[in-house]
Design a protein that fits this description.
The structure holds two protein chains of two kinds. Chain A is of the alpha/beta class. Chain A contains seven helices and five strands, in the order H-H-H-H-E-H-H-E-E-E-H-E. A five-stranded mixed sheet of chain A has the order 2-1-3-4-5, covered by helices on one side. In chain A, helix 2 packs antiparallel against helix 3. Chain A is globular and about 55 Å long. The termini of chain A are far apart. Chain B has 21 helices and 28 strands. Chain B is globular. In chain B, helix 2 packs across helix 3, helix 8 runs parallel beside helix 18 and helix 8 crosses helix 19. In chain B, the strands form eight sheets. Chain B has a seven-stranded mixed sheet with strand order 14-13-26-25-24-15-16, sandwiched between helices. Chain B has a five-stranded mixed sheet with strand order 2-1-5-3-4, with helices on both faces. Chain B has a five-stranded parallel sheet with strand order 19-18-17-20-23. Chain B is α/β, with parallel strands linked by helices. The chains are: A alpha/beta, B alpha/beta.
Amino acid sequence: MSSSAEQSYQPASFTFTDENLIKAKAFIAKHPDGRQRSAVIPLLDLAQRQEGWVSLAAMDYLAGMLGMAPIEVYEVATFYSMFQLRPVGRYHLQVCTNLPCMLRGSADIVETCEKELGVSLGETTPDGLFTLSEVECLGACVNAPVIWIGDEYYEDLDVESVKTVIRALKRGETPKPGSQKGRSGAEPLGGQTTLLTPPAEQQNREGGA
Amino acid sequence: MPKLTIDGREVEVEAGTSILQAAEVLGIEIPRFCYHERLAIAGNCRMCMVEVANSPKPVASCAMPVSDGMVVRTNTPVVAKARRGALEFLLINHPLDCPICDQGGECDLQDETMAYGQDRGRFAENKRAVKDKDFGPLVKTTMTRCIHCTRCIRFITDVAGVPELGATGRGENMEVGTYVQKALSSELSGNIIDLCPVGALTSKPYAFTARSWELKKTESVDVLDAVGAAIRIDTRGNQVMRILPRTNDDVNEEWLSDKSRFSYDALLRQRLDRPYVRRDGKLVEASWAEAFAAIVKRLKGVSGQSIAAIAGDLADAEAMVALKDLFETLGSPHIDGRQDGAKLVGPRGSYIFNSGIAGIDAADALLLIGTNPRKEAAVLNARIRKRWLRGGLTVAAVGPKADLTYRHEDLGDDPAILAAIADGSHPFSATLAAAKRPMLIIGQGALARPDGAILLGLARKIAEATGMVSPEWNGFNVLHGAASRVAALDLGLVPGPSGHDVEGILAAAESGEIGFVYLLGADEIDMARLGKAFVVYQGHHGDAGAHRADVILPGAAYTEKNATYVNTEGRVQRTRLAVFPPGEAKEDWKILRALSEALGQKLPYDNIGEVRARMAVANPVFGGTDVLEPAPWGPFGAEGTPSSEPLVSPIDNFYMTDAISRASKTMAVCTATFVGCAHERTGTHG
C-alpha cells in the first residue's frame, strides 16, 4: 500500500473546488471547536469524489485544513479500503466474491467482466474508463451476486445482466441500479408474500385497553 | 484509595492506577510489550493479561484501572494460557532470525518466549514480509520483525512531539512507518531503538558490531550538552561500542538526545594520542618531556600579565581547578571559562537552572529568552513539552522563531520586548505575574553577546517583578549549552582583578600584549585572533584549537576519565572511566599537575581525592554529588538599554556543537540529512 506514495502519478498539488470547499466547511462546522479533525472521513470522501481517488497531495491538503499531522490522515485513509489511494477508472467495478456471492455465481460474473472489459482483476482499461476489482462482502448477500459501481449496487446479477450493465456504462448511460431481476429491495421475486394486510391493533396481554 | 488483593497480597494504591502498576508496587512483574510507563497506554499486545475475580475473561492489566476490593491473580493456569496464546499470535508473523538480529540477547520478545513460548509452532502458512523503511541515518529498520506495539509511534508523537510515525493499513497489512519516505527529524529519535521491544528498530551505527553480553557497562553522565543526562557506556576491550541512557527522573527521565547517543564513533577519530610540538611551522610528534620543555622555555621570565588561559566546553572541573591554580601561581589574572563570552558572573543563583529540570513539571507560565531549547537541550525540551501536554502551561518566547514541539506565543526577537516585560507594559508580564509558579529560561543566545549583562539584568528584573523568586520557588533559569560552564563559574574561572575575559584575551593576543595562551579544550573561539601568541592546546580531538596550537598536550575524553561535571541545574555529577585514553593521552588534571612541576610551581595535590578536596574548598557545592541546593540570590546583571540586534540561538546545527560531535561521522551524515551541507567540512576547510 505504502508504495503508492512514491508513484509518479501523484499530482503535485490539490485544492478543493469552490463548490467542494463550501461543502467541506459545512462538514467541519458540524464538529465543536478543537474537534475539527473528526471531519476527516467525510472530507477524504469529498476529495475522492473530486479527484476520483485520494492523492497524497489531497491528504496533505486535508491535514493542513484540519490541523492534523499528515501521517494521521494517511492512517485513516489507508485503514478504509473504500478510499482509493491510486487512480481508478471513471467506473470502478467492485465485484463481491465472498461466500454468498460465490455460491450464487460470482466467479461467472468476474469472468464476464474480464471478457467484456478486456482487463483482469485489479486492472484499469487503457481508456481509463473502467477499473475492475474484487472486494470483500458488501453486505447485500440477500441479493447476491453484487457489483458495486460508484454510489450504486447492482444486484441479482447473472452473465447477461452484467453484460447489459457494462454495455450501458460504455455508452455513457446510467443503468438502473438495484436488483437486475426486477425485485424491489430484498423482496421475493414477484412481490411481497407476507405482511400483506396492515398490522392489527396491538393487543394488551393483560387484557383491557 | 482503593485497596486490592494481588496474588493474595493486599496493596493500597491511588485511584486510577492500573493493575499492572499496582502489581509493580508489590514487586510482581507482569510481562508486557506495548505498555511503557512513560508513554500513553495502548493495550494492544495482550501480553499483560491477568485474572480478575468475577470477570469472565482475563483482562489486560495495563489498561484496567484498579477498584476497591478487586481480587487479582497473575499466576493461574488461565493467565498462563492466555499469555501463551497472545505470544503464539505475536510469533505467527515474527521471523525466527534471532541469530542475525541485533536485538538478540536484550529482546523482550525473546525473553518472554523463554517464559511463555511453545516448543513448536502450529502455523504452517507463510509468514508475512514487510518492506523495510528508511528512517534516516540513525535508526535501522527490519519491519518484518515489528509486532505493532506502537511504542515508537507514541514516543515520536507524544514525547518527541514530531508526529511523523504512524500505523498505516490495517489487519495483516498494517505497517508502522512514515508512509511517505522521510528520515525522522526528531532530535530524540534514537530513543525508539530502546523502546522497541523487538529487533524491528535497531541502531544503525551500532549494527552488527557487538552483542549485548560481551559489553562492559559503565555508568556515567553525558557532557555533549549541559543537561548532564545519565548514560551507560557500553564498551568492548578499549572501545566504546555504544552509549545508552540511564534512568534519572530528575534530569533526563530515560531519554537521550541523538547527539549524545550517536557521537561515540568520534572517540576513535581525529584523536590526539601523543604530544605535538610545532617546529618550523609544522606540528611534529614529541614526547611529554619535550612538550613540557617547549612550554617551560617559552614561559621563562615571562610576566603573569602576558599569559592567559581559556577553558572550553568539555573541560572537567578537576582540570579547571588545576588550570586556575596554576595560572594564579604564575601570576596571571587572565583566565576565563566562558569561551562563548557569556556575561555570567555573580551569585550562583544568577547562572544556574534554579528550579531544576524536574521543576519544569511544576511551572505554569514560561518565558523563553534567546534560546531554542529543542536544539540546545533536546531532553529538557521534551520535559517542557510533557508539562505543556498536561495542560495549564503558557509559553512565550522572545528569541528565534522555532518549532519547539509545543504551542508558544512568539513575542518577537527584539531585546526591547524584555524591557517592556520587565516594566510591566507588555501583556505577557501580567500572565507571568498571575502564575503561581512562573519561570523563565534564558539561553546563551541572550547572554553571549556584548550586551549580555544588560539582558541578564532585564531577566533578573522580570524574575523579581513577576514573583519568580521566593523562598520556596526560584523560576529564574539559565540554560547552558556547555557541560563545563557551571563548574567553571563555580570554581571562579573568571578574570581576576584587572584580568581580561575571552574577548579581552583575544584582543590582547591580537595586539601582542598577551604572548602565551593556554587552551583547555577551547575550540570555539576565533583562532585567527590569537595573533602571534604561543598557543598550548590541551584536549582530546584535533579540532580548531589543535590546528592553531604550538604545543599539543593530549587529554582524555569524557568516557576516559573519572571527572566532575556540573550540569545546567548546578547538579554535581561524575563521569566514570569506561575505557583508557588512547596512546599517551592522560587525564586532564594530571597533565596540568605535571606541567606545574615542570614549571617549578608544583600544585599541592597528588591524587584525585586531593583535587576534589581542593574543589570543595574553592566552592562547597563540590562537597557532594547529585544534590540540588537552593542557590544564593543577589544583585547581578547590568542596567542599560540593550542593542536592537535580534536574539538568536547559539546553535544552528544541533548535530555538531563541540570537538567530539564535529569529529563524528554519524553526526556528519545527520548534518547532511537534516541541516543541509552548508556546515559540512570540506577538504579545503580550515
